[in-house]
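User: Before I run my own analysis I want an independent prediction to cross-check against. Here's the chain; please return only the structure tokens and, at the end, one sentence I can use as a sanity check.
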Amino acid sequence: MPRARPPVEEPVEADRRVPAGPRLRPLASESTGVLPELAEVEQKPRSLWRHPAFVVSMALTTLAIIATAVLLIVNIVGGQAPPVESAEIEAGGGNLHLTWTGASDVDLYAVTGGETLDLSQLIRGGAEAWVPAGLGFYDDSTCFVIRPSVEAEAETPVSLTADALAEQGAASVCVAEATGG
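Assistant: Structure tokens:
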């Protein structure tokens, strides 16, 4: 025989109320009709080293000091500019075409009879320079010195001696060695 289901009871109005729990204190006093005074919660002052702005500024300051130290060490250890390894000169069409290998941040000087002329503004592309004959920057006895810019900043005098060129990481080439015509 099939089992009979118990009848479903309709919920009564009392079941729709909030379940009984701890009784909440009323906000208003029944006798005065005024809200109760709220006690201020004391906030403990935050120490400086725990303040977020201080922590961030200290972290950034530490990073800046570390970066400065690393850059100084790299500058001291690897401060030498790469040398100019070789230089070539080619004459053609009333111009001299100078090319070199090695350093790309260089200065170019024309040395004629002990007089030095800075031609660094004629450098193009970091590894070549065109010197027009019409400007009178050179004659048949002129030699060109190509050296790293670091030496110019150190105000090292320009010299054509082999020892000075090797010490400065420079190369020289003379107009008399020019190929072409």
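Sanity check: The CA atoms of residues 64 and 172 lie 42 Å apart.
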